[in-house]
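This section describes the prediction task in plain terms. A model, or a person checking by hand, is given the sequence of a single protein chain and must write out its three-dimensional structure as a string of tokens. No templates, partner chains or ligands are provided. The sample shown here is typical of the held-out split.
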Amino acid sequence: MYLYRYCHHISLFLFIFFSMVLPPSVWPQLGDRSLPVTMAKRVDMCLLCHKDAPGKAHARGVVSCSDCHLGDSLSSDKFEAHRGMVLNPGELKYAALTCGRPGCHSKQVEWVKNTLMATNRGILSTLKYYWGEAKDRRADITVEDLMSRGQRSIAEDYFSKLCGTCHLWLERGKHPGFLGEKGGGCSACHLIYGNNKKKGIEKAHPRLVRNIPIENCVRCHNRSGRIGLSYQGMYETEGYGTPFEGGDFTENELSDGRYFRTMVPDIHYEKAMLCVDCHTQKETMGDGKKRAHMEEQLEVECADCHDTSRYEAAKKKGLHLEKKGERLFLKRKKDDASLEVRLLDPKRCRDRDHRSLSCQACHSRWVPQCYGCHVVRRAQEQQTDWLAGKTTYGKWVEYRSFMRYEAPSLGVLEDVKKGEKEIVILVPG
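The expected answer:
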């Protein structure tokens, strides 16, 4: 054993010496293989065994495997090399050491921990307010707070058991079935799983991407307002499979067992635009500031793309627009295709009768509407607390009277700070 460790350390020293001092043409040969190094001339022994690649920016040799997965990339011993490794570097509990390490994405990691997708602060504060547990809808409470303590109020218990799987702090793969596909911190958005096999690699690394696919967004954005479903033209029907097709049940089923009918999708979806074509980095990852509600974090409006007078401001927000004379074009992130943007009519959209209307109030053909929603708590039965990862007493059961797709109901949204009112769509659910 001592002889093995001695030889191992001598070999490691020689590997490092040759890789740093000598040019690649005179590296020592490991059988028929040269000592692997990154672009920064750092030894990465992981590459001797692992042949897969996560993507262009994180390609083999661009960064060391241990930059993301930790462990010891200088060791040629499997046990030593894998000591302290993490399977998913994107988990928020590791992100500061992995994705957020110096020279990588340190700012973004700090930002995202305060974004609403990580904190769920708006949902929690509103729920506690309406259930009489908070004085207003701006309580500074987060998912991380609930995960760090065991005690739950009634509102917190409801959230933890029925809403506790749609946040970035959730550990990916922790729960069974479709719930195991959610969460994972940075990986929830930026990794594409599935069949990524290439060149005979049996278990390829998931692909790392900047252009987030719609499927990643809709893992969570498919309940409540159901925006992820509506965008794709998917209308959730009654839970028992309403007979829409030839007098029989619809065959369209979501991963969690809900049924849906295919409807007219959003025009942006028809143009093959991704969610991130409109929702910029600051909207999704935040900017480090704590915000209570979604409308406070959103910064892009329809007119940013559809009104030439907002062109400069829209570019600063990160929208990929190009102006040619009086025409505007948006570069689609999926494939860099240039799409001409239809400009709004100032006479119709800015006149006295329409200036207070949101664009959605006129341009949405239909919205899902869930009526008669209510819940019952059965105190003597048990249910999984997803934040605590264990079963506790108190089972919540949701009911609803019926689902409909109709012309949108309208209401008035008042911005107290700005002193403005806007007519917007109301989506019961």
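For orientation: Residues 1-12, 14-32 have pLDDT under 50 and may be disordered.
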